[in-house]
Amino acid sequence: MGEAANLSCYGARKMDTHTEVTTTGWFSRIASSIKSVLLGLLLFAGAFPLLWWNEGRAVRVAESLDEGAGAVVGVAADAVETENDGELVHLSGLARTEDVLKDADFGVSETGLKLIRSVDMYQWTESVERNKKKKTGGKEETRTTYRYKRSWSSTPIDSSRFSDSQGHGNPPMRYQEVTRLAPNVTVGAFTLPPELVSKISGAAIVPMDEAAHGKLTPTLQQRTRVHEGAFHYRPTAVDGTFNAAQPEVGDHRIRFSVLKAAEVSIVAKQTGSSLAAYQTKGGDDLLMLKMGRHAAEAMFESAIEQNETLTWGLRGGGWLLMLLGLGLVFRPLVVVADVVPLFGELLRIGAFFVALAISLPLTILTIAIAWLTARPLLGAALLVAFVGIITGLVLLIRKRKAKRTAVASADPQFLRPTG
Questions:
Q1: Is the pTM of this model over 0.70?
Q2: Structural domain boundaries of the chain?
């Protein structure tokens, strides 16, 4: 009874907000910004090994894919040919199984490659919005608005970290998402390892009904209802008469989906009648699965595109890490200038462009040096680009300086103090 009373209060409010206004003095902001310099230096320094590692990874994967594309052997899935043992093979066919997968908690059983239990819990969530305003004298006013609302979430939310946890408490999540894989999956005459089975997608929802509800334990039946094809579980319910259309905090929404069979294309090493990862001389393992029937060439082209996308994403991440780090290093100067908000804003813009002018060439230089050992021509091209950027910046600075000097010479009053 105590548990029921405690959990029922969680649903007392659906959404609310509260706002906090804080003012930080100039000296406090300076002290805080000085501390941020160390973090900035760490981020700046960390960008270099990230960029270097990414280039090495990209080369290793690219060389492994090139090697695999040249070595792969196409085989029929309906027979195992012993002469291909240990070779990198490509095959397509229907992945299937006779295994029955069971969820012991809810009594659901299905024949299929995968049985997935998806769980959402109705919880309080906190969103934070901050608006900062500079004040004369270097002070900064921060208006922070916290918004609380109830919604479904597949991961437990720790309400103890909320700014206002009173009345916004979330109970523990009783059930979690679980994916069960069939141990015996075949494509023709070949048996798939769990690593490949886990890559197969396309599970379909299994609607829950009253028959499925009847398979639950008596206690679980009292706390569960069928609603919109899913189990609606209320931990505080003592019978099954609650309204699932009006959820309370702590309620679980449990769905099941099953993957019966699927057409797949695979590139892997043939090991007897099984398949495994293929170790390339380039250093990367090849174990590829793509939904549907695809030629080996198309699978390798897709893998090459994915590698290029990841490579450019990590390059951009390394550059942003460097840019952010420099921004934190320059932060004390900006805060000092904030004693007059307009000066602070101008210096903030200037610091950004300085950080940009430093981080972009260094990013290109790091990538170029990393590539010199593996792809000399591309590395040399990047070095030329680096030199071009630096030269362009120097010429731009000289041009602006020369223009300023010319204006000063034509008008002696230009640099003379006024007032």
A1: yes
A2: 2-23+72-294, 26-55+308-406
